[in-house]
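Troubleshooting entry. The earlier prediction with adenosine-5'-triphosphate gave an output that would not parse, so I re-checked the input for stray whitespace and re-submitted. Clean input:
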Amino acid sequence: MSAVVSPALAARAGAPAAAGAPPLVVAHVAKSFDADGRVVPVIGDLSLTLNEGEIVAIVGPSGCGKTTLLNTLCGLIAPDAGRIGWFGKEMSGQPAGVGYMLQKDLLLPWRTALRNVMLGLEIRGVGLSEAEERAHVMLDQLGLHGFADHYPTTLSGGMRQRVALARTLVNEPDVLLLDEPFAALDFQTKLLIESDTARLVRESRRSVLLITHDIEEAVSVADRVIVLTKRPTRVKAVYDIALGTERTDMIAARESAGFVDYVRRIWADLDVTRQ
Amino acid sequence: MNGSPLPLRATAPGGVDAATQAAAARRLAAHRRARLRATLLVILSQIALLAAFLALWEYMTAFDKQAAFMFGSPSAIAGFLMTMARDGSLWRDTYVTGVETLLGFLVGNVIGTLIGLSLWYSRFVSRVIEPFVIALGSIPIIALAPIIIIWFGTGLTSKIAMSTLSVVIVALVTSYKGAVGVDEDQINLMRTLGASKFQIFRKLVVPASLADIFAGFKLTVGFALIGAIVGEFMSSSEGLGHAIFKAGSLYIIPKVFAALVATIALALVLTFIVGKVEKLLMPWRRLG
Ligand SMILES: Nc1ncnc2c1ncn2[C@@H]1O[C@H](COP(=O)(O)OP(=O)(O)OP(=O)(O)O)[C@@H](O)[C@H]1O
Ligand SMILES: [Mg+2]
């Protein structure tokens, strides 16, 4: 099926239960919160599948439960109902091989860029010299050569988010869960970092679930866009994006023929004016 | 070379030329000089204010025997400082109080910070002990002095105990506040990276609490000193508190002030050291 498979994925594929299973299957997940004794249903009934090497974008009205969904997927909160399967196995606790990144870069101010990138490797007990080596390579790939010894306070917003991306990618996750990671960046920086992310992710056939408010970002980056309704949220529409261009150059993607049409249709689906 | 209509040097393509760089360096140097001048002005104003205050004090007591007796005078205070320095009592008393304060400060902060940080581990335990901590924290330290002297004697140990007790609750509360104030998203990130609770504690909670812990250190320098001095008031044969108490009961008011000057100097030196250690331990805070 694929030419390049990440080592972790290949290892998992060896397990009989996981053979050929998509990285992530979400079936009929529901979640409510208690707000002052009132039960507020946030996720109504949500199902989706993330295939290997696929980038799926999720757009939806503000406050509809996108972040809640992501937190459920990576085991930070438990769903009330439904099933979540990682690589064909029922989820229990924190899933392995999953990277998580937010709009806030969450860099530790007392660590240099390099040591921030090394955080996950350190936690998993990777040796110091190997961790340093891998972190250096990752920083270089994201255009941060020469900034390894900088503290976060001395880096620009775009550079900080690149360090955060390096911190996520250096652990070689099979799946990335991204929650509006580029929302705070200016337009040029955003296009560049989107392109770099798409390139690195597609090169290694990692899968991505990207939450975004930016419909143009969703259409230009993703293979599939899922539109959610407002609370209690469920899937409203799914778009398979076929732009017919190399999907690692966001400028080309935004200039391709079908782009504007997809954006318009998704915009209409989101129904922003009726909020 | 470029067709840009705006002759903006700094943004010209092809990098920054030597002239621009030199101009930037000049601007930076000018900026630094301006900042230095501002700091200098502040220091000079402070010296002037102090001098004016001392001059007024000296003038008001110079021709009035009763005022001189009640309030002392800067020259009399300086005289006593001189005498105390010559006969060695100034150094001995400062040393004794300094040791009591420092040990109380260290023991109180180590115990308080360790408990405060480790309370992060258990929401349950911290909720259980919260009212007790508040109750203990509200006891005026002087009310404990008689018991402390019964328990620890009249020597050095009782002063260190007093000093420790006046520090420990503050250290506990500030470090606990720091630990529970850590960004929830940051903790979640650590969890998704597979961190154990202990790893989250060591790699995130402890370093993230350092700023609050040091704020507590700065606050407790004064508390440690109060504890030591109150301990010396109760019963002692040496120390600055002893000197103040003795001079006060003999109505030698300039001598009280002289010992007070030494006490203030001690507090300033200790605060200065804490500030230096803070800069040393948190180099990233100097940036940005
Ligand atoms: N721990 C919680 N307790 C109670 N209510 C919560 C909690 N977390 C989220 N909510 C509520 O759930 C709803 C969905 O929140 P969520 O952050 O998932 O939305 P979102 O789609 O990510 O929004 P945005 O697009 O603004 O990021 C909100 O109305 C929020 O107030
Ligand atoms: Mg959100």
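This one parsed fine. Residues A 33, 35, 42, 60, 62-68 surround adenosine-5'-triphosphate (ligand 1) (CB under 6 Å).
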